[in-house]
Every structure is written in structure tokens, then in C-alpha cells.
Amino acid sequence: MAINILIVDDSAVMRSIILKTMRMAGLPLEEIYQAANGQEGLDVLNRHWIDLVIADINMPVMNGEEMIDRMQENSDTKEIPIIVVSTEGSKTRIERLQHKGVRFIHKPFSPEIIRDTVTDITGIGVSDE
Ligand SMILES: [Mg+2]
Hints:
Blueprint: E1 3-8, H1 12-24, E2 29-35, H2 38-47, E3 52-55, H3 64-73, E4 82-86, H4 91-99, E5 103-106, H5 111-122
Parallel strand pairs: 1-2, 1-3, 3-4, 4-5
């Protein structure tokens, strides 16, 4: 099973690092969508089937936490697994996100932590190729 993913980060460089890391980890990816802020992320979610969202927190227009709140208020998107990848240092904020069922990965991250978190949260297998 390959998954459709949405990567939401205001840094295009960070989006491509995350994507490259996921590919190198052998994660089976189907469609890959990208968005530069939470509002763009919600627009993509409205139009496409997404199996996993990888989101930054600090972004202009709409931050990651607000996007997550909107996703969880909407019955179409509330079950989609979310991984936050952020430099966020506030323990309060991290715990608040974890209470919402979101997994948290600190930047900078290792390929292993990305792979293990994605396989754990989605239940997909990793190919050896
Ligand atoms: Mg950012």
C-alpha cells in the first residue's frame, strides 16, 4: 500500500528535505502534495485524498496548530494522522499537540525517526529497495 502525503511547511527547502528523507527511508509514497501554510494545506485536503499530513508549526497566514484544529473539527479530515516536524521548544505547546493525538518530531531530525514515526502512525511497511 502506498500513501498520499501532504507536507505543509513555509520553507520549500524543508519540504524537499522531508520528502527526500521519506524516500530514502523506503516509505511507499503515491501522490505527494505540498503547501506553504495551514490555509493552503486545508485547501489541498479539501480537494485530494490524503493519508498522512506532515506539518510545521510556525508559518505565515495560518500556523500548523490552527490547521490541525480545523482538520479535527471537520469530519472529513479529523481521522487523518498528523506528524508535526518543528523547531518548537515550548513544552506546553508540544504537550497540547500531543493531547490532540499529533506525533511530534524535532527539527533537525534523523531519517530513522521519520521512518519509524510514519510506519507507526500509518501502519505501512517499508521496502528494502
Ligand atoms: Mg516554519
